Amino acid sequence: PTLSNQISAGEVVERPSSVVKELVENSIDAHSRDIDVAVKGSGLDQIKVTDDGIGIEPDDVKTAFMRHATSKIHNRRDLFQVDTLGFRGEALPSIASVADVDLKTSTGGEGTEIRINGGKLIGIQPAEARRGTIITVNDLFFNTPARLKYMKSPATELSRITDVIDRLALGHPKIAFSLIHNHHEMLRTAGRGNLQQVIGSIYGINKVKKMLAVKAHNNDFKLWGYVSLPELTRASRNYITIILNGRYIKNRAIADAVIKGYGSKLMVRRYPIAVINIQMDPILVDPNVHPSKTTVRVSKEPSLCHLITTMIMNRLSHQNL
Ligand code: ADP
Ligand code: MG
Q1: Closest residue by CA, ligand 1 atom 1
Q2: Does ligand 1 come within 6 angstroms of the Cβ of 131?
C-alpha cells in the first residue's frame, strides 16, 4: 500500500502548494469557519493547518489515511453531484506516504493524535484537543529525492502557496483564513462573507474601489463577482479567478471570455483582476478529470462564456469611462 500511495502522491502532491490545497480543502469540507495555515521555508520544512471544523471520530482516524477512504461520497450517484471539494480519498494517504505527518483531531469529545512517517504508522493515541483538526506535515518529499529536484526556489514555491490560499479564500468569503510564513503574516481575511473585503485583503484595500460588481444569469448559469476597471490591470492573467460551485478552477476558455468582455479597453498584454462565481447544476460539471480537481469539464461551455463576456461588456458600458 505504501508504494501505491507513493505513486498516487506523484499525482496529488506535486509540490508544497498541492499539500496546502488538499489540507485546506479538507478543512473547508469539514465546515470550518477559521482556517490557519503556517508554512516554514518553502513548505518542504513544515506545513501546518489548524481548523475548527467537525473533526474526525477516534474510530475513523486510521481509516482517513487509507487509500480511497472518503467520508464524502457514498455511491455512484454522489460522484456525479459532488458538493464537497474532496471526494477521491487520496490526499491524506498520499501526503503521509511522502512526509512525516502528525494529525490531532477532535469532534468535541476525546481527541486522537496519529503520526505517520513515510506511510508507516508510528503511533496513535487519545489526545486532548479542542474541536477541529490540526495537521502538521514535516519534511515533505524526504523519501522521494527525485521529486525534491523538481522544486523551484523557495520564493516560487511560497508564491504558489499564497496563490492557492488566495483563491480558496476568494471562493469562501465566510471563512476566515490566515497564512503565516515563518513568523510573517502574509494574508488574513475577515470571514464575514463579503467578497469585496476578501478581494481587498488580497489585492490591496485601496484597489477595491476600482472593482465593479457584476452579475448575470440564464437558464443554466448564475454568475456573480467583481471585475476591475480597465485601468486596473496586471501583467498576467493570473489575477482572474474562476469559482465554479465553490471550487476554483483553471479554464482557459472562461478566462478568455472574461478578457473578451473588455473588448479593446485593455492595453496590450494587460489583464484585468476578476473574481467570477459560477453556479450551475453539478450534474453538468465533471471535476473528476485530474487528481488535482482544478481542471473540470463543463457542459454548455460556449453559452457560459458568452454570458460572461456580455455581462462584463454591459457592466463596463454602464460605467462612465
Ligand atoms: P477526501 O477529501 O477526498 O475525502 P482525504 O484523503 O483528503 O480524502 O481525506 C480523507 C478523509 O479524512 C476525509 O473524507 C474526511 O473524512 C477526513 N478528514 C481529512 N481532513 C479532515 C479535516 N480537516 N477535518 C475533518 N475531517 C477530515
Ligand atoms: Mg481531501
Answers
A1: 89
A2: no
The CA distance from 185 to 191, in Å, is: 16
| Protein residue with least CA distance to atom 11, ligand 1 | 64
The pLDDT-based confidence of 208 (bands split at 50, 70, 90) is low
User: 55 in helix, strand or coil?
Assistant: coil
| Integer CA distances (angstroms), 251 to 54, 276, 287, 301, in order | 32, 12, 12, 10
302: closest CA among 244, 216, 214, 221?
221
- Considering only CA atoms, which of 14, 204, 166, 152 is closest in space to residue 90? 14
Nearest ligand to residue 65 Cα: 1
Place of cell 505504501: 2
Nearest CA to ligand 1 atom 23: 27
Q: Is residue 73 in contact with ligand 1, taking CB distance under 6 Å? A: no
Residues within 5 A (CB) of ion ligand 2: 26, 86, 91
pTM for the structure as a whole = 0.93
User: For 132-166, what is each residue's pLDDT tens digit?
Assistant: 999 999 999 999 998 999 899 999 999 999 999 99
Domains and CATH numbers, the chain: 2-188 (3.30.565.10), 204-317 (3.30.230.10)
E runs forming strands in the chain? 34-40, 46-51, 100-106, 111-117, 120-127, 132-138, 176-181, 184-188, 211-217, 221-228, 233-234, 240-244, 247-249, 271-272, 274-280, 285-286, 297-298
Half-sphere exposure of 252 (CA within 13 A, CB side): 0
Q: How far is the CA of 132 from the centre of ligand 1 (A)?
A: 12
* β-strand partners of 275: 226, 241
